[in-house]
Protein 1
Amino acid sequence: MTETRLPPIPVLIPPYHTPEREAIQAEARRFAMEEVLPLANELDPQKAEIPRSFLKRIAEQGYFGIRLPREVGGMGLGAFEYCMISEELARAWMSVASIIARAQGGGTQHATGDRRRELLERSARGEWIGAAGLSEPSAGSDLANVQTRAVLDGDEWVITGQKRWTGNAKAADWLSLLVRVADPQPGQSRSAGLATVIVEKQRDAFPGGVEARMIDKIGYHGFLTWNLTFDGMRVPADAMVGWAARQAGGEGGRPERSTFADVEAGLNVARVHTAARAVGLARGAVEDCILYAQERVQFQHPIADFQAIRFKIAEMAARVEQARSFYRQVAHLIDLGIPCEKEAAMVKLMATEMAVEVTGDGIQIHGGNGYTTEHQVERHWRDARLTTIFEGTSQIQQRIISDRLLPRSPLS
Ligand SMILES: Cc1cc2nc3c(=O)[nH]c(=O)nc-3n(C[C@H](O)[C@H](O)[C@H](O)COP(=O)(O)OP(=O)(O)OC[C@H]3O[C@@H](n4cnc5c(N)ncnc54)[C@H](O)[C@@H]3O)c2cc1C
């Protein structure tokens, strides 16, 4: 039998290649395969989250501040490198590619001046990692239906309601909550009156006035996910994003900026990041299959000799390349500041659906072994399965795309 081997690693090509990017990619790949992968293989079967000590290792790599300026300790890079590194991390463990998204300067929008700078520096150091509480029991795809209330009482907001699916809530240093401060007035959109509150908290604890229950999931185990109930939790008035600017303008009362528009803009980057994570997972399946097919012998041949297996792997690999090219293009558009909401939705849709199918094919190529926890391909599939659901389901991406392609008739 010939020597079992993997194909050469995918490289950066023009117009995206720079020596700096090549070095960043190589280091992310080394870190992922040498340090993240063994951890995933050990912890995922135990449904154990990313250890706190490993957060320090991720911080040393600089990955919590990829998109933060160098002046605050970040890497000063763009969406392109953010996605490129995330593909490498997801190849090993999607949870690690996800936790870095919970820093990158998030949870600092409410702060100003020196306090903002301090939080940005902490974010870059991995000491200001958060959780996003958007979804609720009755507000998933339909975020405009958020019911959690924030009511101003003196110089504090009192928060009451429920959040569902808040990933990393306990381990977080802050929670970003989408809340309702007012009901929409007649003629306003349903999202009017929504605002974002940043709740500063102790790591590994929940603030007073919060009851938490962990959700038992089928994958994505490095990232614990929580149901949160807020029963009169109090936060300072300036925890509301946009509050300080409003106060400086002397108007008081309600947040000024369009919170829903901010959330939507953030989702664009999140969608490309999810596409990159999906590509990482699918690539993992392809690479594992290439090795397995050369080792597994049936009918006195490595199964890699059978055309059905060869052609399937060829197709899987081609689909991964296609999705990677697309996410790189969309990340590049983001870095150029070119509006690309439709394209972000397209790449999220295509890459995540691809990943579900490719990782599923990976299980088939592993035969019975694919249906065990003894091989990594089942983890790739379980994690890929989530990517078509979170950050907006595939159907919501189809809705975003079609709404930008087709006008609706007055009848709809
Ligand atoms: C493991 C996990 C982690 C998550 N982490 C977070 C997190 O950290 N923070 C957070 O805020 N949220 C998080 N979420 C929530 C996630 O974003 C939602 O699950 C997702 O947006 C879908 O909402 P839903 O589950 O309520 O489904 P629903 O909105 O109830 O949708 C059910 C089905 O109906 C379809 N559908 C809904 N509306 C339409 C429509 N208009 N047209 C066509 N089809 C439609 C959907 O595509 C889906 O197939 C997480 C979810 C999971 C599973």
Protein 2
Amino acid sequence: MRSPEIIRLPNGQVMVKRFSLPRRFEHILAIVTFVALIVTGFPQKFDTSNFGHWVLGLFGGLDNARYVHRAFGVVFCLHAITHLMVAILGALRGTMRMSLLPVTQDLRDAWQNLRYYMGYREHGPKLPKFDYRQKFEYIGLVLGGLVMVASGLVLMYPMLLAQFLPASLIPAAQVAHSNEAMLAFLVLVIWHIYGAVLSPEVFPIDRSIITGYVSAEELEEHHAQEYDRLFPHGHGPHHGHAAAPAVVAQTPPVAQQVASRAE
Ligand code: HEM
């Protein structure tokens, strides 16, 4: 059963659904596979370092680490294919909002935010469900993921591919795979972990990817355009009504947990 879009907690707080269950599951899968690929990939890249040597030893040697890396590489490929298929089918059928795809408004938002940060505007722009920074990160992840899948497959089946494609593709794939892995790792550690965990706005963690919900106040502050779409007349008791009654539901178990932790 689909969880409701908007819920009211027993303490009166209004919560808005941000991530469905499949998206939250995907995020956990992405964390597990990415960590496993980093842990088994980087010691191969830095195999002459003491640390690389030590990690390879934990796996029982280079060969084992390579097997584990390849196994998680296959999981990563299947996840990437499924994700893209679901998104494409959802777009074609019109059952999925393409809220992570960049639009020209994002450029205007970025420009207006820059002017706001520099003190030329009194307010930042009203941002959509996913703002230009989040879209940039997502598109980077998809494109970087495709580079990792394509180069990883070349490294996995070099002899097979050399029968059809130029053999120079193999060292090129090795360079691409190795450097894109480093780029992805740095983006994750510096950008994503900061934005989702360490930033004072969300510290100790942005729980929306775990619970699936954000409070209406957070939505209003960070994604005002989406807030206006969902609550054209506001959400508090002083605004008359919370939202269209059809989408308001009473507290499901997950939201009760959110409430108890928020109190
Ligand atoms: C984001 C995900 C990934 C990361 C961070 C990653 C990381 C790495 C790193 C750092 C290396 C060592 C490169 C070097 O020696 O300089 C490597 C090697 C390798 N990776 Fe990945 N990788 C990822 C995804 C994949 C995928 C999806 C596949 C399979 C389709 C794959 C297959 C391989 C293979 C075959 C090698 C060569 C080592 C061997 O022969 O087992 N990787 N990876």
